[in-house]
Structures are given as C-alpha cells and as structure tokens.
C-alpha cells in the first residue's frame, strides 16, 4: 500500500470518527433540550400507579373475597414486575460491551420485553384463570355459597373506579410519549394500534399493552362486581375474575409476538427507508444504490448495510464516496445512532433491489 493510500485511509477514518462524534453530541441535545427528555416516563408513571393500585386491590380482595378483585390484584402485581424488568433491561442496554457483543447491548430492552410477555404476563394470567376456575367449580357443586354482601362489594367497585382513573392516566402518559417519539423521528402520525405495530421501542410497546389490558380487565371486573351486587349472586363476580385472567393470557401472546419480532430484527420505517435512499442517491459519486438492509438494534440505534455503484472503480475514490455517504445519512437522519457499512460494487441483474 502506498503512502498516498495510507494518508487517504487515515483521512477517511478521522472524518468518520468526527462524524460519529458529532452525531453522538447531536443525539444528546436537539432543539435545545435532550433528545429523549421524556424517554422512560411511561414506564416510571406506570410503576408508580401500579404499586398503589396493587395495594388497594389486595386490601379490597381480602376484605370482600371478590374473585374479580383478586384477579385484578394478580394483574397489578404482574404489571409492577413488568415495569421493574423493563427498567433493568433499559439500564442493561446502556452498558458498554467488553467485546463479546460487538454491536453493543442494545437488544437487552427487547429481551426484557420478551421476558415480560412470556413469563410475567402469561404466568399471572394462568394463575388468575386457575383461581377463578376453582371458585367456579366450588360454586357449581355448592361447596362455596353464592350469596354476597353488596356493601362489601361496593368497596371493591370503588377500588375498580379509582384504579381505572390511575390506569387511564398511565395510558395517557404512554400516548403522549408515543406522539412525541413519532414527531422526533419524523414518522407520520398513526393510530395507536398502528403505532404499536410499528414502534421499535420495546418498553413503550409493553407499557401501552399493559395499560390497555388493565383498563379492559377493570371493565370486566367492574361488570362482574356490579352484576353480583344487583343479583346477590357470587357467580358473576367469579366470571369477571376469569375474564380478567383470560385478558392477561391473550395480551401476553400479542406482546410476545411483538417483542419476538423486535428480537429477530425489524426493518426501519417506510418513510425512513425513503429518506435513506434519497440521502444515498444524492451523494456525489453514487451512480446506483444496489441494495440496502437496515435493522433496528433498539429504537434509536440502526445497523445499516449498503451496496452502491460508484462512478469510478478506483479505491481512493470509493473511500471518499463512502465517507460522503455516511455524512449524508447522518445529516439527513440525525435522530438515529448509525452503524454504517458500505460496499462499493457493480450492479448485476441478479442483485436484490434496494426497494425490495
């Protein structure tokens, strides 16, 4: 390798390092405030709400013997455990790798979300269903009396209403954070279901699912308790408890599917894909974007691999073009942390298109 080539490569490495440094600094502060000023707010708000809710529900369940309230107590304990696991996952993802994880620890968030879905949600749901099923059997064979004290159940119903208000506040916080994140990464606003399907934030997807399931579960619990109060029959309250457990089981399956997809590696948003293609195509020296593969390592970190055809088949020229491509991408999408690999190549008919 000639001295001239060595100087060119050294210059490229220096420019790339400076670009990454500038990107990191830009990620920490945008528009005069931290980029993730509200990141994690939904998890913290949900944990604070669920601790209080769990205590109130257990007290009401012990006082009234309500199956619906007991199932809701299990639900809230699972929710608290979920938030703690997600917070540990978030902290683990920020740790620097010692070399055994060359792309960092970003995916610890996705692993935490998968644990939440497959263990805590599912186990909590199965436990609640099993307890309600046992009580239903007891009511059917007459070993458990079906008469209820309406005044006692009134206390349980009051806890349901208060819990619904707290869970509603938690869902409101999640929705607000979702809107802010969509605006930050320049993604078109979508319905909440659409955002949940497209988001790369494991913790936000988990909390949104958790808050939504909590409100649905409280609706079933309230209906069960209310019907038992009106009829004086324990059966309706027990059915309400059974439905709460089933809601948890179904929610665990949906969350497992989402977090599993994130663990496997999801592509960038379609609009982000277009911005990337445009940034590469606008780079001087690029004749064709042959292929592009991008995978989210976490919500803010993207691994990007490109094949491009340059206007000259010259090593030094290609190095300069690669550097320009990286700078263009980081300038066009500064809200992401990029790990970029570019391979100059010659287009062939059997190449996979960048749009596929």
From TrEMBL:
Localization of this protein: Membrane
Give the range the annotation lists for the signal sequence: none
Positions of the Cation efflux protein transmembrane domain: 44-264
Give the coiled coil ranges. Answer: none
A molecular function annotated in GO for this UniProt entry is: monoatomic cation transmembrane transporter activity
What Pfam families does the record tag this protein with? Cation_efflux
Q: How does it sit in the membrane?
A: Multi-pass membrane protein
Q: Where is the composition biased (Basic and acidic residues)?
A: 20-32
Where does the UniProt entry say this protein principally localizes? membrane
Q: Where is the composition biased (Low complexity)?
A: 7-19
In the UniProt record, does the keyword Membrane occur?
yes
A Gene Ontology biological process in which this protein takes part is: zinc ion transport
Name of the featured protein: Cation transporter protein
Please report the organism this UniProt entry assigns to the protein.
Answer: Bifidobacterium erythrocebi
Read off the lineage from the record. Bacteria, Bacillati, Actinomycetota, Actinomycetes, Bifidobacteriales
